[in-house]
Amino acid sequence: MNKKYSILIRWRSGLLVFLTHNMALPVLRFIRRPKLFPYSAAELHQLPKGTLGKDLIDFLEARQLQLMPHYAKHDIKHILLDYDTTDEGEVCLQSFMLGNRHLSFPVAATVLYGFVTMPEHWSKFIAAYKRGHKSIRISKWNWFGLLHQPTIVLITTINQPPNVTV
């Protein structure tokens, strides 16, 4: 990778983190007043292996991330959709949500940002969009109520076509 491209990637990544974490999320948290995550890290550690809650805390710790009450729902989506916490993974996650018929400001802004600044990943974003479109709708799920469920069952459910019930 040449030096200019490497600098561009770092700048692009820094801008994405700044726009989401320092601008959009604080404003949305104020406007939406989301329900706080009802579990502590210690409580999640007590859940059985293979449950979404246990997998959430393991996921965060493997990436050296803190459990943050306003981000937990988003982090759960990373696990269930199998998109990492990289810039590419963030845009894939939001492309999936757009394809899954969930339109919100964060979804639209992240997908637009990804398409404008990450042309080398367009095929992955399009694949994520198509995957979301073929999956059952998940935007209305009770995310915090799923923490005791087996993660593999939830992943299988998401990957079923919309007209199939599990």
Portion in strands: under 5%
Q: What average pLDDT do the residues reach?
A: 87
The number of domains is 1
Written as H for each helix and E for each strand, in order along the chain, the element string is: HHHHHHHH
Number of helices: 8
Distance between the termini: 45 Å
Number of strands: 0
Low-confidence sequence ranges: none
Structural class: mainly alpha
**Helix content, binned percent:** 55-70%
Overall geometric form: globular
Specify the biggest β-sheet.
Answer: none
Determine Rg (CA atoms, Å): 16 Å
Structure notes:
This protein has one domain (41-158). It is mainly α. The model has no long low-confidence stretch (mean pLDDT 87). It has 8 helices and no strands.
